[in-house]
Model the fold of this input.
Amino acid sequence: MASAADIRQYFQSNCVGGYVEFANVASGHCCTTSFPSATPTSGFPSLAVLNADFGTQLFGYQRTRNGDDCGAIAAQQATGVMIPEMIVGLDLDPIIGRFAASRWYPARPVEKRYARACAPTITEKCESAVMPNRVVLDDGDLFELEGLDEETNRELIAFALNGATVGEVPDRFAEFKRNRVKGEP
Done:
């Protein structure tokens, strides 16, 4: 059973284009960027879990009125048979809104057998909130967020959220740029 998985929150539907990534997240931890709820572009239209076992539960949450990012389940799905590097994703209809956060839970023995969705129980509360480790622009350029202060983190995510390419990101962020993501243009 996997003890950690990678979660991606995409800026476009169908798990394409740029995204923020939360690497090696333990189950039950709320993955959030905590964009202000007043921002019209707040949230993500699609989510994905990578490196997860068969029957893993992926949950997408909408922000609640009290500001809890991991409050109301908007969508959920159990993973099926996994192929290495396969992404299992969730989309949210734009009419309904966007995901504010995501979590994953390992399958229980019964769910492993049937790979069906189940809501987290009262014992599966959010352990803690985690911030993303990296952001990938629509053009495939990757920036590390690990160790950055919150303001710099938010600035880089905002560039990606607005569809910026590497040429549009100010030079002051060059030290955080890494290689392009495998498989991206």
About this structure: The radius of gyration is 16 Å. The mean pLDDT is 75.
